[in-house]
């Protein structure tokens, strides 16, 4: 895995560990940073994980962010702004020869379905209390456990791709800290 200047294996491991803490701690407000890190990894090492794995994880984290805004009772304008920011209608630009049409279709359908659900909720909040309860269940702890698993698998692939740490590097890192 080629890393840009200043983003050596130690820096990547550090950001990966911080991102892991964000996911494990369910710090939803920092999910955009984790998504940014995942996009960086995808650009630097497109073969690290399959496209669908990457997109499921990123889309899940972004969806959780939007759902949390709804559950917090934020104004619909703020929710819809977040939705449009994290799920632009143009969709992601994909440059990966290994992506199948089925992968693209499934990701696109999932994104469209989620966006339609949120927009329908914003336009006509009929039976809002039960819809909020459904959202809370659908994007609750079981969902986050699945996101955590996907992220852990991503980190395992990253660790395999990075050079092994030597004992001297570990000691130096501990002493410098």
Automatic annotation (TrEMBL):
GO terms for cellular component: shelterin complex. Transmembrane segments: none annotated. InterPro entries: TINF2, TINF2_N. Pfam families: TINF2_N. It comes from the Eukaryota. One of its GO terms (biological process) is telomere capping. Residues 20-169 form the TERF1-interacting nuclear factor 2 N-terminal domain. This is TERF1 interacting nuclear factor 2.
């Amino acid at each position: 895995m080629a890393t840009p200047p200043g983003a050596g294996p130690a820096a990547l491991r550090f950001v990966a560990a911080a991102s892991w803490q964000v996911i494990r701690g369910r710090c939803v407000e920092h999910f955009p940073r984790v998504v940014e890190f995942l996009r960086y990894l995808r650009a630097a090492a497109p073969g690290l994980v399959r496209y669908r794995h990457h997109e499921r994880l990123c889309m899940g984290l972004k969806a959780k962010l939007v759902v949390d805004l709804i559950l917090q009772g934020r104004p619909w304008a703020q929710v819809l702004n977040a939705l449009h920011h994290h799920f632009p209608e143009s969709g992601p630009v994909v440059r990966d020869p290994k992506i199948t049409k089925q992968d693209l279709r499934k990701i696109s359908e999932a994104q469209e379905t989620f966006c339609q659900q949120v927009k329908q909720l914003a336009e006509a909040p009929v039976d809002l209390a039960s819809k909020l309860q459904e959202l809370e269940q659908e994007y609750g702890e079981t969902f986050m456990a699945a996101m955590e698993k996907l992220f852990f698998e991503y980190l395992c692939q990253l660790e395999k791709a990075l050079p092994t740490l030597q004992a001297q590097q570990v000691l130096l890192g501990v002493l410098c800290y």
